[in-house]
Amino acid sequence: MVELGRFNKLTVIRQVEFGVYLEGGKLGGILLPQREVPNDCQLGDTLSVFVYLDSDDMPVATTKRPRVQVGEFASLQVAETNKVGAFLDWGLPKQLFLPFAEQPRPVEKGQHCIVRAYIDNTGRIAASAKVEKFLNKTSPEFVVGQEVSLLIWRRTELGLLVIIEHEAQGILHTQDISRDLRPGLKVGGFIKQLREDGKVDVMLDKPGYGKVDPIAKQLLNYLELKKGFCALSDKSSPDEIKSVFGVSKKAFKMAIGNLLKQGLIRQDETGLHLVNSGIE
Asked: In this protein, which residues make up the domain named Conserved virulence factor B-like winged helix (predicted)?
């Protein structure tokens, strides 16, 4: 079954001068224009294509990747507005329609807005800026530590609201924001906590020792450059550690502990030493 507004793997059933037709089931043959047909394309080949409706509401295929698929959220720019709604730039020739009824507040040309792509009651692909109605209101099936995709949604007093895996709402608390983020940005993250009330906390770094890995590598690189010795240790002041490695003392101590357990370094009253560095 062909999914409108999403990528599909479809079989080439007919070749014509202006392209190829793909098997579309109930939709019939779906045209892939000649400019997008692979040079070595043959009858019977299977192609990965995005299927949407053209200006005449006929199904058409493209190998281009739009900025959003049906069932997903994205931040899109308003290209035009008129009496019936707005039209969004989603990377395809035919712009994505955002009806007035799906705008919590009127949008303006040039503005970016976060929307969900869906199939409306006429069978056409449309967008909605009423984000909340598409989010999972029950407890999402996530686990603590799970790696997830995040779409930054909007700011709150507690931090940033995010959309997790195009499915659920989460919050990235201010204390867990380690870099500049803005609404509409897509980032990777991790599930930090699943609350009893169904709310989800997320973080940008791996929880626990997982987030120490880059710092541990940084420390090993430093030791190698400094002939196997670092005058800093877990007794050093937070300011000294911050000035050299740019991290908190807590994270630095966790990195030291990780490397000590692996037998890669040793620590004494003078500082840290790289094991088997040849400089003892």
From this structure: 218-274
